[in-house]
Amino acid sequence: MDESSGVELPAGLADSSLAGNAIFNLSKAVVLVVDDNAFSLRLTTQTLLGFGVQSRHQTTSAEEAIGLLKSYPIDLLVTDCDMPGKDGYDLVSWMRRYGQENAWVPAIMVAGHTPQSKVLKARDCGANFIVARPLSPVVLLERILWVAKDPRPMLQAGDYFGPDRRFQDVGPPKDIGERRADMLKAAQLAAQMAALESRADGDASREID
Amino acid sequence: MTVVTWIMKKSRLSKLVEASGGTTVQAALRGAEEQTRDMRAEAMAEVEAVLSRLEVMTRTAPTGDIWDWQDEIYALASSLMDVSGPFGLEDMCAGAFSLCELTDRQKRGGRCELPPVQVHVAALRLLKQLEEPKEARKQVLMGLERLLAREPRIQG
User: Which ipTM was obtained for this model?
Assistant: First the structure.
């Protein structure tokens, strides 16, 4: 219940990070939804329709999704993780490598059960997020707005292409000094050593005199 | 040495969501509820279909490839979560999650045991039948939790 207006809030909104009166616009976004379960596929696309998404592509296989990615530019990919044949991880990985203009598109992966192995796999294939089911409207909207505002840059490193896998820049490890500080310290020490040596040379030459 | 290339590129989505017009979060969520309301009956039918399939599959020990059988149980439990979760069947969804976790742990441990799977499927049927009281459903889920705790968790 919204205390200010006395109106019943949509399910889950009170427990989410979303502000009920925040405004967003998805009317011009093109979303591709991929799920081998036809019912879940329809549920997700209907939910997106409720969010104001006017243009949606949907398919039950990753192979077909690749065909769509080759033909149409999209703005968001929502894909199931586990599918027969090529799965959601293969799809995101393909999109990042060969998707051309779609290579930068935010990707949300959805799984019923998310053990650590799946989370790591989703992270390493280049997805922005993995979401555990049930995919309620509030959770889906929250994640879409998160990926839209995701500040992480994209990066390519070795086999990996996708968003920076670090969510936080925590700096260097606590017990190891900063490299620049170490270099300054080493330079200072070298200068002190040189000064001592030159003073010792001076003393020695005076003794000879 | 690995070369790291940073690409500071803003997605088109980030610009679109900020465009003028649009809707409030509250209105969007109401819109989504309206668009999916008619799917509830279909979801309940799907829950029944998946449950029946699970019951048939777990009546006797698997005769073919046990790992295929286990994968199918996992997939069915996962699809049960898909259809039950968004329509207020949170307990059914929790029971289905427990079955996913059980089969996943067994697979990682290189085992495939029928009795705990059978208990889960029977519990799911009970959760569907027990509309009220909530306490009874909670007891069923606690039982599944205890059963799951016996399965060693293998990381990786």
Answer: 0.83
